[in-house]
Amino acid sequence: MTDPTVPDQTPVPPTPPAAPYNAGPAKPSTILSLLSMIGGIVGLVLSCCFGAGFLFAVAGIVLGHIGKKKENAKGMATTGMITGYIGAALAILMWILLLAAPAMLSFLPWTSYTSSLTYP
């Protein structure tokens, strides 16, 4: 007979190993849309500096169109395209103004181009 004051010493069976963790399908990447948005915003900001943001704006436009077709982050891609188009237009406008500025300033009476003219 066993002593009633001593608990039962039967071994406990080991617990089975846990099921492996299934991470599930990977989320689609939104890198093209993110780069489009960054390129568009940088192009918009730098286009006011002598049209230097034109290349960034074009990159934002191209990456935005590609990202809109391939990714789910359509908001970032659209933002990149809109800011890219505005930045490219501002850069072209700045180039036109910079090329036309000397010609426009030559007709002012206080510039050196017209100082030899006499007015009646």
UniProtKB/TrEMBL annotation:
<feature type="transmembrane region" description="Helical">
    <location>
        <begin position="85"/>
        <end position="110"/>
    </location>
</feature>
<feature type="compositionally biased region" description="Pro residues">
    <location>
        <begin position="10"/>
        <end position="19"/>
    </location>
</feature>
<feature type="region of interest" description="Disordered">
    <location>
        <begin position="1"/>
        <end position="22"/>
    </location>
</feature>
<keyword id="KW-1133">Transmembrane helix</keyword>
<keyword id="KW-0812">Transmembrane</keyword>
<keyword id="KW-0472">Membrane</keyword>
<protein>
    <submittedName>
        <fullName>DUF4190 domain-containing protein</fullName>
    </submittedName>
</protein>
<feature type="transmembrane region" description="Helical">
    <location>
        <begin position="31"/>
        <end position="64"/>
    </location>
</feature>
